[in-house]
Records
---
Amino acid sequence: MNEFLLVFRRDFKTKEIQPSPEEFQTHLRRWRDWLRSLESEEKLARAPQPWEAKGVVLKHDKSVTDGPYAEIKESLGGFIIIKAANYEEAVEIAKGAPILDLGGTVEIRMAVI
């Protein structure tokens, strides 16, 4: 079994496409249900945790700037590490990610160790 990183991104800035408070609560329930199902199937390698929306970026010249950049609409929403046999299985698992319901994306990468 391989480990895959699933990185979730979506537009958190465009006001018109943000879910209402009620829609957001429903969305959070979908996340909880999806993550519980991955856990029960022993596909979740590491437990998820929340992350702040703000952060810093360390550049190649060792300078530090505020990030993520304001001009980028799509921001990192979080990530999990799953267990799957191959990319095809990882993609099938990722298709259940609730971030897709809000127009987001899932980046999938396999660990090389």
---
Amino acid sequence: MFEKILSRRFHLNRHRSGPYAEERERYLAFLMGEGRSRSILKAVTTLLYCMAERLPLDRATVMPTQIEAAARQWRATLGGCQSYRHNMERWFVFHATNWLRMLGRLQKQPSAQAFAAELEAFLTFEEQERGFASATLARVRRCLGEYLNWVAGERKTIREIAPEDIAGYISRRSVEHRWKRTTIVAVVSVLRTFFQFAQSRCWCASGLVDTIDAPRIYKLEGLPQGPQWGDVQRLLTASCGSSPGDVRDHAMLLLVTVYGLRSGEVRHLRLEDIDWAQDVIRVRRTKQRKTQRYPLMPAVGEAILRYLREVRPRCPHREVFLTQVQPFRPLTAAGFGTKIRKRFLQLRLVPPCYGPHGLRHSCATHLLAEGFSMKEIADHLGHVSLAATQMYAKVDITALREVGQLDLSNLAAYAERSAHLATPIYARGSMEALQAVAAISLGGLL
């Protein structure tokens, strides 16, 4: 591995004969597989030699505090300004931690999470019994972990928690962080579920769950938060450039606006999910844990193919869309959302929702304005039932105008018709129907 990075024989012999040469080569091979450039690999090679001399690698495991101490000692030997030495110290800690973790010799520090055993038992229940996805479990862990740490800070046990303690925590946090009603409801839902589980295990006082209340959120009380279709068209036009960022973002934006995909469904799209021979794209519905097939529209396929040929880096990852900076890896939810937000700000647009989910709302609203039924829109968006699609009826101006002009003299016939329209969905839409819907959505963008 050293000969692929270093060219001078003196340097090659020095690193080959240095301490822990085999372990250093393993880490360099790992970085090369991530797609790191040769200049970065040369710098890390020198850094690894310093680590091998300063870290207590003669022990079975190394603690993070020992890594930080070695980094401070190494920083004292460096020249340059204070900012440079600080960055080099952070670089030392970063690579030393990753190197020892890869070797299996990094000792984990004790968790600072209060009531860690109770939290893990509850998360296991949520995953195995209720079937929650990993993203939901991460949100529950963060929300409940903050509350349990607060309880520990108050020097109380779970059995000593009283209703006023929960109410005081929610009131204080909602004021400090300016929580909205929806956030308060989400937090209260997590706490209620946890205390139901704790009551079944006899961890808390009986009847505590009944005292936890939250603000009322009326069903379908809000409007779909998405930009106007004209703003969506401007967003697509602005991304039709030739830079690597434009090529990648244009393909992702087409997937969101034409098919109404969620952020995770775009980010988790894999190379094998696109069938170029049959012109079919398979979308992994993470919420329903199913796969749905869509016809691959020519404009969308060309945009993805251009990204794969001209921009996408070569790396072991199978996800279609990757970062542009080494190490190459799949996009995160925050990264994808930030990209779309920056593009809106560059156009000086102020939509009610900057993220990719707002574009999904715009797609559904546009299809509704084009005359598609709720059933067809629900199939296109991957909704299991019409209940999730009913919110778009509030922005159907044509249908609302018809309702306003409706003759109410025959209420029985009207009630029968309404019951027929509320029939739940039992089957997915056909490929022909999905192609028609996608064609209308794409036609409004070109």
---
Amino acid sequence: MKTKSLAIIEILLAYVILRFLGAGLRTTGIVQWEQETLGWSYIAEILFIAIPALVIWLARRKWVDYGVSLVDWQTNLDVGIKAYLVRIISVGALVATLMLGIGYASLRGGLIIAIADVFAIVLMLWILSRQQTVQNGTKNLLITTLILLFPILVGLAMNRLTLIVVSTVVWQFFSGFGEEFVFRGYVQSRLNQVFGRPMRMFGIQFGAGLIVTSLLFGFFHAFNTYDPTIGLASLSWGWALFTTFGGLFFGILREKTGSLLAPGIAHGLPDAVGEALGKIFGWM
């Protein structure tokens, strides 16, 4: 019981620090300059990753236990690309909320995307049940590179390529892996260590870590619309709703593969391509 309590306290402290760190950095000059020039803050993202990484390092834990491993990377990359394609269902629902004028941050918009996420989860479980081992990952590395280059080539073709568009591709891909390291890597793995993975459904072994991490992931995103320094004082429960189910999608990939590569690809690729195209066409 003491071990479990200490693990929960550790996670909550890290969670609170990350939340307040993000809020505090928004008002700093260097971060504001990054956002104006590059569209995003690389410093904030690096610090976001550094907090749990420091905890793991100071506790002298094994990185592989937190999903930081390239073991069987060829298969996990294959799973990640398939998951990226499945995530198009959720991204399509998000775009639909924008086109309909609902907005993905609203509760109604969040519900629409959450329903799409449920369909994505069901389809991904079916794909995972039929996944075969992949020996050569060269083709998938090329596919990943071409997907990342796609919005840049579109920007060039339309004469709308800017530094912010390129930065969006880089930052969103990096940020996708960063969030996966923090939540599916650190939080989910730490909870699994103390609560175990006693349940099994659809070929996925899991425990409380999968559910709790998904809820924390959603709650974390509720604060995306909360920043009193610029007049925002409300929590986005719609955003929290669909990112909870999105977190469940990524968490399942983490449990199935034992690595952060698949959820990192599934998270980073759609964000990089979607956000960059949104900048090019003025959707976001």
